[in-house]
Amino acid sequence: RISSAAVGQEGPTYSPDGKQLWLGQANGYTKFTVNADGTLADPVAVDIPAVGTQQALVGAAVFSADGSTVYSAVNGQNKVVAIDAAAGTIKQSWAVGNAPRGLALVGGKLYVSNEGGRPAKAGETTMNSYGTQVPANPETGASTSGTVSVIDTLGGKAVQTITVGLHPTTVYAKKGTVFVTNTADNSVSVIDTRKDKIGRASCRERV
Fold first, then answer.
1. Considering only CA atoms, which of 138, 135, 94 is closest in space to residue 118?
2. Measured in Å, how far apart are the chain's first and last C-alpha atoms?
3. Spatial CB neighbours of 110, under 8 Å, sequence gap ≥ 6
4. Structure confidence by residue, pLDDT tens digits, 16-71
5. Which of 17, 45, 65, 100 has most Cβ atoms within 10 angstroms of its Cβ?
6. For the chain, what is the radius of gyration of the CA atoms?
């Protein structure tokens, strides 16, 4: 059981060795030990502090290959954090686009889907999304941009931004390619991780 009734935006994440399970909450995670029979024990709170009135509202989480670090999309604060998996402390933080949600780790590069896209420009129509002014359609209020941030977790380099479809959510990596689901325009953006560019035409779903 967990002490808080709050839940995160994505499902739980297992460590590479299967011995930990991290469950997203409004203000961080609950970390469980996974017993040999698959049951959970020893819940420990891993806090991501609120910034003013903005809770973390965590999105996806992904472990480093060695299991020492958990990368978390902090949807409510427009950032990604690196958490020491053993100590439960934040080691590093990167500012990304608006409302980060999905994550995929390819080598040392982290791909982050930003549901609200890029920061607003002066004079644009915007909507207030949990304290952030997001570029938006003046009639529907829907966001009008979608982006993926690329973070070099090994070199600590600045974040690169790739334009994708609208309201990108889930990110999936396979054999040097990252697939991004764009929920607002029924498409999938395909990113070539060698160049960090859209590698070939995106696909549209027929409904």
1. 135
2. 40
3. 62, 71, 80, 103, 104, 150, 151, 153
4. 999 999 999 989 999 999 999 999 999 999 999 999 999 999 999 999 999 999 99
5. 100
6. 17
